[in-house]
């Protein structure tokens, strides 16, 4: 490599390091339960307050190509696993920062990248060793959801939402089928306070009764879900009717009405058949609610019978200002539920919805993984400790890449402690010292700054999030290190 080429490569690396470091500094203070908020102001003066890394990366205007690549990769982390966005940005930035120490002393970036790959393989082995495999009962799922929600919301609200999030996933869970989180409907209601958010074991519809004379509340009701129009409607295509006299016009109107009345009469006969000797109610809903209420969704009334009916314990209309909602509760074995998010303003509602989505994904991941890993920085400390020991068995200068990888992972516990108001170096040294004595997986207690056994404190992270994070962070950091020139592309100057 000539001197000019070396300068050009170092200049490209410096630009990339600056971009990664800048993105890291933006998200650094948002990590963990004690992280701070960011205020996002759009061109239309819409204001959003959030600490969710995925929301920040999607909403921010990122111009630098390297920062944009990091943002896209870490946003993909959230899309695949539902969490780990902020941690990924911090680790990528720190991997590049640690690598720069050795590159500035003359070490080639390829050697560092090889060391990163060796360290990643060992880190994944350690991750498999420290994971805790157990039956995912409700108690441990509560801990998983609580850990996730605490990083997005204040403690009181997170604790209140934990049970609702876990119960909603357990309700829609069906043995032998993958968990479909689309079966959890998140419905907004600007009403009361955020602590009134609740789980409805059924559905909430965003409309009321179709006619003011209809009942506003029905108990122990049969549910007929039919996708059949029961109203007099105009045709969807242009059509004309020709008649010679008023009598012919009247006959046409009567024929149209009779078609609708025959449909209604079939429903009335079925209602009289099932409700004649009881006080049970009967509700016709023009939506497919069979996953919540049971029964069969009908597209025509030709096959109408009692086996088509579902059941709900309580159906009622709720009016909030000019808006009306229909609550369908008391479903026997619902495979679809509604999380009714309440709050005084749109900002609170958006914040809760983002947090609930992350909480649902965390619970789903734990069930599908069949295992969890200790949180509060315990995994990163354990992997870093194992890599420091392992580097002595690595031949050649690649061990420097292993050392850089180990130091980079410690950014997570250090930033967690720093955001909680403690000295990052002091907290980290306490954890490492205590771990070497007790041989347990220790994280940082953010309430005291002291070491704690994360498993005993009920602080759990998802195994798949950590695994994907190690893969993606190593890959993107290695690729950025190997960039020796940044060129703007466009129309080619070569002529055919």
TrEMBL record:
One Pfam family it belongs to: Cpn60_TCP1
An example Gene Ontology CC term for this record? chaperonin-containing T-complex
- Tell me the compartments it is located in: Cytoplasm
Q: Which domain of life is it from?
A: Eukaryota
Which chain positions lie within coiled-coil regions? none
Q: Is-annotated flag, keyword Cytoplasm?
A: yes
Against Gene3D superfamilies, the record matches this protein to: GroEL, GroEL-like equatorial domain, TCP-1-like chaperonin intermediate domain
- Give the Gene Ontology MF terms in alphabetical order: ATP binding; ATP hydrolysis activity; ATP-dependent protein folding chaperone; unfolded protein binding
Its keywords, alphabetically, are: ATP-binding, Chaperone, Cytoplasm, Nucleotide-binding
Key word Mitochondrion present in the record? no
Family designation: Belongs to the TCP-1 chaperonin family.
Under what name is this protein listed?
Chaperonin containing TCP1 subunit 6B
Q: Which organism is it from?
A: Jaculus jaculus
This chain is encoded by the gene named Cct6b
């Amino acid at each position: 490599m000539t001197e000019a080429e070396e300068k050009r490569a170092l200049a490209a690396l410096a630009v990339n390091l600056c971009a990664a470091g800048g993105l890291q500094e933006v998200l650094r203070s948002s990590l963990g339960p004690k992280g701070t908020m960011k205020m996002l102001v759009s061109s239309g003066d819409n204001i959003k307050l959030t600490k969710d890394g995925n929301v920040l990366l999607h909403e921010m205007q990122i111009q630098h190509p390297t920062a944009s690549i990091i943002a896209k990769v870490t946003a993909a982390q959230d899309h695949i696993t539902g969490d780990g966005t902020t941690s990924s940005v911090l680790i990528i930035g720190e991997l590049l920062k640690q690598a720069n120490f050795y590159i500035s002393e003359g070490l080639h970036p390829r050697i560092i990248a090889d060391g990163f790959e060796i360290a990643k393989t060992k880190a994944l082995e350690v991750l498999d060793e420290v994971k805790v495999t157990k039956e995912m009962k409700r108690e441990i799922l509560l801990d998983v959801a609580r850990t996730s929600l605490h990083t997005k919301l204040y403690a009181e609200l997170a604790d209140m939402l934990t049970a609702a999030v876990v119960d909603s996933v357990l309700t829609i869970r069906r043995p032998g089928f993958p968990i479909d989180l689309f079966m959890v409907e998140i419905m907004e209601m600007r009403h009361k306070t955020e602590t009134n958010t609740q789980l409805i074991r059924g559905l909430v519809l965003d409309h009321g009764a179709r006619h003011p004379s209809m009942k506003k509340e029905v108990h122990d009701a049969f549910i007929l879900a039919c996708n059949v129009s029961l109203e007099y409607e105009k045709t969807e295509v242009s059509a004309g009717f020709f008649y010679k006299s008023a009598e012919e016009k009247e006959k046409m109107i009567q024929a149209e009405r009779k078609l609708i009345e025959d449909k209604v009469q079939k429903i009335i006969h079925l209602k009289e058949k099932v409700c004649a000797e009881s006080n049970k109610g009967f509700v016709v809903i023009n939506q497919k609610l069979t996953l919540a209420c049971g029964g069969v969704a009908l597209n025509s009334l030709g096959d109408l019978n009692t086996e088509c009916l579902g059941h709900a314990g309580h159906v009622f209309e709720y009016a909030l200002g000019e808006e009306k909602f229909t609550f369908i509760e008391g479903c026997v074995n619902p495979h679809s539920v509604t999380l009714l998010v309440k709050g005084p303003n749109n900002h609170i509602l958006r914040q809760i919805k983002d947090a609930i989505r992350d909480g649902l994904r965390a619970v789903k991941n734990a069930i599908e993984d069949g295992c969890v890993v200790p949180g509060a920085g315990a995994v990163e400390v354990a992997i870093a400790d194992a890599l420091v020991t392992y580097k002595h068995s690595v031949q050649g200068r690649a061990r420097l890449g292993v050392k850089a990888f180990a130091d980079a992972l410690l950014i997570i516990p250090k930033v967690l402690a720093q955001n909680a108001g403690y000295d990052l170096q002091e907290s980290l040294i306490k954890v490492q010292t205590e771990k070497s004595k007790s041989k347990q997986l220790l994280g940082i207690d953010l309430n005291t700054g002291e070491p704690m056994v994360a498993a005993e404190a009920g602080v759990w992270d998802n195994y798949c999030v950590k695994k994907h994070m190690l893969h993606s962070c190593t890959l993107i950091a290695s690729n950025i290190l190997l960039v020796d020139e940044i060129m703007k592309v466009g129309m080619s100057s070569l002529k055919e």
